[in-house]
TrEMBL record:
Pfam families: OCD_Mu_crystall. It comes from Parasulfitobacter algicola. Transmembrane segments: none annotated. This is Ornithine cyclodeaminase.
Length: 352
């Protein structure tokens, strides 16, 4: 491993605000951003064995959860702070907010600080589409999205950009959420059907994304709603006590996950025995095991989000900043002329 040389101005850390993140995404273009981000995510899944891996560190309360998601490839360290508070929507707040840091393992100094509320939505959608490349039926063009909240449009755009999805069937128990989603995606070259039930949304769909927010054991899809050959992208169940699929669907599906020790705690498979067989996405991407093998196969990506995906997103943003001015320089780290004289630095600031 090459030892990095500490750069000049090492105390200055690039910071990407929400405003700058929106400008960066729009400058690149949403679909291009998703396609390029997907390449980083897929590349890091190919390097899976290099990464430190641990289930996220979670602090649960009756109102929600606050989590830290760390990982390192030995040269660069990254982590994300993220919350999940479903009640927030009723109070006019975001269900999920986040920020992230990328650091140099050699010095331990941060190299990037960025908002990750928008970036998490993008990386979640890009990861879903990467998995579907290997698991969805060939030439699928119709996707049902059940749960039309903050993540829904990102999912639609990622599946369009990466898989060529053209038709959307939208459903949410809150009709205004469906109206919002359909409005935001108008003019994006989709054929959109607004559905009145989840069963209606499933009609003709080869892919279904479930992305609901309620923190409870829910049954968004029942077994009779899922025909043979469908790919299920289950991303709403992402903490203990929160699921979306009936257990019988799991028992007849080939299940693919990011990191089993985390997914068994947080994903749909928390409903199953600890030894129930699952397949790891990184092994599919590297060709060690097969993804979809038959037209009649029901595949399930039980996605809870994993730290390597955030790491990929942070890497991508850091690389793209070189081409832009969409960041601020934060004087974030104390950097005295003499490293041992931190107190002297404080005294000199008082007299300045």
């Amino acid at each position: 491993m090459n030892t990095p040389t500490p750069p000049a101005g090492i105390n200055i850390v690039p910071f990407v605000s929400v405003d700058h993140m929106m400008k960066l995404v729009n400058h690149i273009g949403v679909e291009t951003f998703l396609r390029e981000l997907a390449v980083y995510i897929e590349d890091d899944f190919r390097r899976w064995e290099l990464f430190d891996k641990t289930p996220r560190v979670a602090s649960h309360s009756k109102d929600g959860v606050i989590e830290l998601m760390p990982t390192s490839d030995g040269e660069t360290y990254g982590f994300k702070y993220v919350n999940g508070h479903p009640k927030n929507t009723k109070e006019g707040l975001q269900t999920v907010t986040a920020f992230g840091v990328l650091s140099d393992v050699y010095t331990g100094y941060p190299a990037l600080l960025t908002e990750m509320t928008i970036l998490t939505a993008l990386r979640t959608a890009a990861t879903s589409a990467v998995a579907a490349k290997y698991l969805a039926p060939e030439e699928a063009d119709t996707m049902a999205i059940i749960g039309n909240g903050a993540q829904s449009e990102f999912q639609a755009m990622a599946f369009k950009a990466i898989l060529g999805i053209k038709k959307l069937r939208l459903y949410d128990i809150d009709q205004s959420a469906t109206e919002k989603c359909a409005f935001n995606l108008s003019g994006k070259s989709f054929d959109i059907t607004k559905c009145t039930t989840s069963q209606d949304a499933m009609e003709g769909a080869q892919i279904v994304t479930t992305v609901t927010a309620d923190k409870q054991y829910a049954t968004i899809l029942t077994d009779n709603m899922v025909g043979a050959g469908i790919h299920i992208n289950a991303i709403g169940g992402d903490c203990p006590g929160k699921t979306e699929l009936h257990k019988d669907i799991l028992l007849r599906s080939d299940i693919f996950v990011e990191y089993p020790p985390q997914t068994r705690i947080e994903g749909e498979i928390q409903q199953l025995n600890d030894d129930h067989p699952v397949k790891e996405l990184w092994q599919v991407i590297t060709g060690q095991i097969d993804g979809r093998t038959a037209a009649t196969q029901t595949t399930l990506f039980d996605s809870v989000g994993f730290a390597t995906e955030d790491f990929s997103a942070l890497r991508y943003v850091k690389d793209k900043l070189v081409e832009t001015e969409f960041y601020e320089e934060l004087d974030m780290l104390a950097d005295p002329d003499e490293p041992r004289d931190l107190f002297g630095m404080l005294l000199r600031a008082e007299s300045a």
